[in-house]
Amino acid sequence: MSETFLPDDPQHPIVVENLRNSFGDHVIHEGLSLTVNRGEILGVVGGSGTGKSVLMRSIIGLQVPDDGSITVLGRSITDAEGDEDIDIRARWGVLFQGGALFSTLTVGENVEVPLKEFYPEIAEQLRHEIAQFKVMLSGLPRDAVNKYPAELSGGMKKRAGLARALALDPELLFLDEPTAGLDPIGAAAFDKLTRALQETLGLTVFLITHDLDTLYEICDRVAVLADKKVIAVGTIPELLALDHPWIQEYFNGPRGRAARDAQHGARHGANQKVL
Amino acid sequence: MRQLAGYTLADGEGGAQIVTLTGPLTVAGVGGLDTDLRAISGPLAKVDLTPATAIDTVGAWVAWRLARDTGAEIVCENEETRRLIDAVSRSHGDRSIAAPRPELVERVPEAVGDLVVEVGEGSVGVIGFFGAILVSCWHLVSAPSRFRGKALIRQLELVGVSALAIIGLMSFLVGIVIAQQGAVQLQQFGAEVYTVNLTGRLAMRELGVLMTAIMVAGRSGSAFAAQIGTMKLTEEVDAMRTIGVSPIEALIIPRVLASVIMMPLLGFYAAVLAIIGGAFISQLVLDIPFVTFLLRIQEVVPVRDLWVGLIKAPFFGFIIAMSGCYQGMMVKANAEEVGLRTTKAVVQAIFMVIVLDAFFAVFFTKVGWG
């Protein structure tokens, strides 16, 4: 399926090699390498200040790294020419932490911005229809489309931001702490939405999170950032088998155990229902 | 080169037609196709997606919309295409994208009403704010140990010392303009020697203080509003209150005092530099030696002109600081409001300064200091 539809794409949409980032004397990343597989949800975790957001900003070209190479969808970000740069921006969507909606535009108009920018030939009526169904696809109620961001709650802002990120049907979706600041019910709903969209649209998702429930629920693999690099990538059971103190403390702390038990319980419950 | 989607129309059974969509049905390819498809009006039997090479939600929407409007059935063999069409068909809506906007006849009276209410509430608010400052001053007088000396010195530096360069340069240039333009006019009567009177008296009475007030409003009044507004947004002001620190004592009194103290000093400094500017250009244009110009100033500018300037200045400083701090404290909602309030603070301050200046001009003439 994806071969016929996206012929020129490599199997690894994001490849980071030997990345180095620093602010003045403060080195954030040193020799960081990471590969993301097509069609997976990769969770990125790490303590505060380990440079998760900086890594994302480097990959999407907002932060120019000191050294190393970043390849996204087969194009080099680190030495991109102007034209390639624009071409590739139409193929990814980014959800920033606070939603980063344009405050002077309604939710629907926010979704229209990338459409207008990249595909001006799309007629106004179709553009309105697209904006409308994208907003609803992101789990917002029908009447949210003509509201201003200031009229929305935090969770709705994130959904609206997601709608804008999905405006161009990207292959790659970057989510920066999508469930931070949401109540547990809202967070669980957002996780479900992310998974559903990922499956329906065949997305590759790069997801920064602190939320252990999100990791257990929807991430195919988890990358752990510590000591200025990615120290491990793998499924959670694989990571648990490792002996790194931070990983052990993270997943085996009280919160980590609670999240694991919750997921275990849910599976158990589901099995019982089937039986 | 971007590939575009296309379509073919064929006759089917019973007079209804079959539309076959080809090429990539993606956001990049369907822009033109959709416009063409909307022109098809007749009833369709089938929309065939089998030959499409790619599909995304936008393509799925275009196909589904066509099928819905023409009563056609969608034909596709692909599981993923089916899933996308299901997803978009559950998400259709018909609301307008733009925010609801009332009619002009409703909008105008509403805007006028809002403005009236705002002005009314604003006046009450300013008076209340003024009262709060007076109360705080009284508290400080009765308990002087609570006065924040360091904060005051910091503000004195920000309002005064760091403004010296820009205010000096501006006044020097204004002095040049006044002397030069005045000289051109006065020369017609052979009275160019009065350029000294013109420059000296204008700088001392009006321009020094007025230009300084405008500059301080732009530099410090806006900074007050933005700083305090941001502190309101980050809940720093609320945190102060819960700890028991009065934001008026900690934030506003130092700023108001700094402006009141610095304005006369800056105003005098500006007047002096304006006169130096005038002297400088007079030497070049009118052949009045620099020193002679300065000596003449002593003779033609009465000391009470200096007092007129110095008396006005603290009032201007007070107005600038008040409007900056008041607008800052009024910030409630979001970052955009900080910008709006900052602008408002500067506009309000300059406007009030000029109104007050006009009042002072009449007042000083009436008391015989004209």
From TrEMBL, chain A:
Question: Which Gene3D superfamilies does this chain map to?
Answer: P-loop containing nucleotide triphosphate hydrolases
Record bears the keyword Cell inner membrane: no
Name the PROSITE patterns for this protein: ABC_TRANSPORTER_1, ABC_TRANSPORTER_2
Q: Give any Pfam family that matches.
A: ABC_tran
Q: What is this protein called?
A: ABC transporter ATP-binding protein
Keyword Cell wall biogenesis/degradation appears in the UniProt entry:
no
Q: Which species is this UniProt entry from?
A: Novosphingobium flavum
Q: Which CDD domains match?
A: ABC_Org_Solvent_Resistant
UniProtKB/TrEMBL annotation, chain B:
What's in the keyword line of the UniProt record?
A: Cell inner membrane, Cell membrane, Membrane, Transmembrane, Transmembrane helix
Q: How does it sit in the membrane?
A: Multi-pass membrane protein
InterPro entries in the record: ABC_MlaE_roteobac (IPR003453), Permease_MalE (IPR030802)
Quote the subcellular location field of this record: Cell inner membrane
Recorded hits in Pfam families, A to Z, give: MlaE
List membrane-spanning regions: 124-144, 156-179, 265-286, 306-326, 346-364
Which GO CC annotations does the UniProt entry carry?
ATP-binding cassette (ABC) transporter complex
One Gene Ontology molecular-function label: phospholipid transporter activity
Function in brief: Could be part of an ABC transporter complex.
* Protein family according to the UniProt entry: Belongs to the MlaE permease family.
Entry-linked NCBIfam families: MlaE family lipid ABC transporter permease subunit
**What is the protein's given name?**
ABC transporter permease
